[in-house]
Amino acid sequence: MHTLDTLIRHWRDDAGGTYRTWFLWDERLKNFRSIRRGLQVVVQDIQDGTFGTQYRGSSLETVVHSIAEQRQIFKGADHAFLWKPKLRIPDIYEDPGHQRAFGHFLDTCACCSTEADLVQAIRTLDARGIKGLGPAAANLMYFLHPTLMPPFNTAIVNGYNALTGARVKLGKWEEYLALRAGMLRLTAEHRSQLSNDLGAVAGLLFDVGSGRYAPPPRGADAADAAAWRADLERVREEGQAAHRAKDTAQSQDATHTQVQGWLRDLGRALGYEVWMAANDRSRPYGDGRLGDGCLDTLPPGIAGTPGADAVRLIDVVWFERGTLAPAAAFEVEHTTSIYSGIVRMLDLALGAPERTVQGLYLVAPDAREADVRDQLRRPAFRAVSHLNMRYLPYSELERHREAMARFGQGLRAVEAVARAL
Fold it and tell me: Tens digit of pLDDT per residue, the chain (421 long)?
């Protein structure tokens, strides 16, 4: 398996491969919390009988859309859940019993924590024989249990078959469980290079199955091995385009950081204590770091709430000086998923003592206003419209931030330039 070691090392270093563009991507980690919370909404809707009979506009569409946005590996993930009227599949929209079984499956997967329980949940669902509802649902399981259940799609299956010589097929849970066992073995055999998060080995198989890499030869022929290594070099040369894309992404990160810096400085000028997202605090900004002068820890009343892990990732939070009551939260959505940012702010608003947060703001480029409004129309947020989340355009913040810092009082200055949603 020496050649497979070579492939994994190359894959980890490839700027255009899924390891660097998806597995190490900060937004992938942020999405776990929002997708898990979204699945809770799906389960509750099914239990309450309010899920409806359509995929479009349902809470399930919201969750699956958040997964499909991770196009590096999940492009097309929503196709399996789209209602196909001629085939009447997947049959979880018009058959109430099947819908409840699907809800019970999701609820069981969210609540259990052992491999045996998860496999049993799969077998129980499979025994129902729900037409059109196959292992595509494993993508939902992955975001609940990333170390136990791998993602599943055509490219991953093709990559596994090419790498191992297996003949796994799509469409059956038994085939998925066989694939899962093989992926766990690959991870164990290459523990020094593959994370126990099964997204890593899934990303490797995806890149093989989608044709980015040829699989290493399984025989001992030296000429085959040399030709394969030459193919790796070709991929490395073609990766120059990925380097350019990475430069573009870094430029976007710089813009995101700049806006966070504006909000940090404005909050402090208005007399607030400022919390900066835990994963952004060390980013260079000005002559120092983005987290300079900010709170080192969340206030105790927030740190002890169930959603504290998500709150720590909110881009910027302002707290009242003295009482440390949350005053305002800001999610900067430069190019990332707006849905995830909304969920993080709701964890703060609904989990804060007596729900005292005065302002919730989505800060985004002017061109993304329509995207922001579309997200808040989703069924998953219908019960929290009373929180009056607002949209703060980049242009208004940039144009007025200095005047607000000099002459503003509290949140009134921000409210004056923010837009109701």
Answer: 467 899 999 999 998 899 999 999 888 888 898 899 999 999 999 999 999 998 988 999 989 988 988 888 998 888 899 989 888 899 999 999 999 999 999 999 999 989 999 999 999 999 899 999 988 899 999 999 999 999 999 999 999 989 888 888 888 898 899 899 999 999 999 999 999 999 999 999 999 999 998 888 766 556 645 654 565 455 555 544 444 444 444 444 458 899 999 999 999 999 999 999 998 998 889 889 999 999 999 998 888 887 788 888 899 999 999 999 999 999 998 766 688 788 888 888 877 655 567 789 999 988 888 888 888 887 777 767 778 889 999 999 999 999 999 988 889 989 999 998 8
Read off the DSSP letter of residue 84: B
Q: In this structure, what token pair is assigned to residue 139?
A: 């993508």
Please answer whether residues 261 and 290 qualify as being in contact, where contact means their C-beta atoms are separated by less than 8 angstroms. yes
pTM score of the predicted model: 0.64
Q: Which residue is it, tokens 């997947």?
A: 90
Q: Which amino acid is at 310?
A: A
The dihedrals phi and psi of 362, each to the nearest 5 degrees, come to -95, 115
Provide, for the chain, the percentages of residues in helix, strand and coil under a 3-state DSSP scheme, each rounded to the nearest 5: 60, 10, 35
H or E stretch including 4?
A: helix 2-13
